[in-house]
């Protein structure tokens, strides 16, 4: 996360809402004397913002690590991002940078009992499918019992009890308004990264 406090002005509720809406991130679990374990995971952030539910393939090294008990963990949730050319500001003595939005969710990750897996899968698929309306939602009961049981034997439910949520919204808030708006216009036309047009729109409202 960028240390400049100008990029950390989002309210906690805004950071949680961003992560909840995105619903996908990189789960990181530390390993003593080794590189952290990483996994890309879809997740559900609870309405009260206290916990994240997710599932892991049983063979995932993180799932194996959790068999010995809860582990400190973090989920990095990325949003739009783009390169920013110093020429876009219309100011002298500027340098290249990268604008982005990211939220980090930190807490203790643990496995849940297997009997909670079905409910978690139901809640996850329902949350994702409702975004596809008016398409009739896919549900678990569309699977044969045999196929569903085979799937459930391959995955484990897990929960992150949240202790902290931090967000960086790096939108050139540290630049004069004219320079920021000029950069947004150029990003809209020429930016590259992940959804630079959305990022440009957010810069205009920063």
Q: In brief, what are we looking at here?
A:
This protein is of the alpha+beta class. The chain has helices at 12-22, 61-66, 117-129, 145-154, 177-190, 196-204; strands at 24-31, 34-42, 44-45, 51-57, 71-84, 97-111, 155-170, 193-194. Strands 1, 2, 3, 4, 5, 6, 7 and 8 form an 8-stranded antiparallel sheet that branches.
Task: Tell me what the structure shows.
The protein is an alpha+beta fold and 206 residues long. Helices cover 31% and strands 35% of the residues. The protein has 6 helices and 8 strands; from the N terminus they run H-E-E-E-E-H-E-E-H-H-E-H-E-H. Strands 1, 2, 3, 4, 5, 6, 7 and 8 form an 8-stranded antiparallel β-sheet that branches. Strand 1 and strand 2 form a beta hairpin. Helix 5 packs antiparallel against helix 6. The radius of gyration is 20 Å and the shape is elongated.
């Amino acid at each position: 996360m960028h240390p400049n406090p100008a990029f950390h002005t989002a309210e906690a509720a805004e950071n949680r809402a961003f992560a909840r809406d995105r619903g996908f991130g990189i789960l990181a679990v530390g390993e003593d004397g080794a590189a952290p374990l990483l996994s890309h995971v879809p997740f559900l952030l609870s309405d009260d913002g206290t916990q994240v539910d997710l599932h892991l393939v049983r063979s995932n090294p993180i799932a194996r690590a959790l068999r010995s008990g809860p582990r400190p963990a973090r989920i990095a949730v990325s949003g739009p991002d783009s390169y920013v050319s110093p020429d876009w500001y219309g100011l002298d003595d500027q340098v290249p940078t990268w604008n982005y939005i990211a939220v980090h969710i930190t807490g203790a990750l643990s496995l849940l009992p297997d009997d909670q897996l079905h409910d978690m899968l139901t809640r996850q698929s329902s949350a994702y499918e409702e975004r596809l309306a008016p398409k009739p939602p896919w549900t678990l009961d569309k699977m044969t019992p045999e196929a569903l049981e085979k799937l459930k034997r391959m995955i484990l439910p897990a929960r992150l009890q949240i202790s902290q949520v931090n967000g960086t919204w790096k939108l050139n808030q540290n630049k004069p308004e004219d320079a920021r708006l000029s950069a947004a216009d150029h990003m809209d036309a020429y930016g590259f990264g992940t959804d630079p047009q959305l990022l440009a729109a957010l810069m205009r409202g920063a």
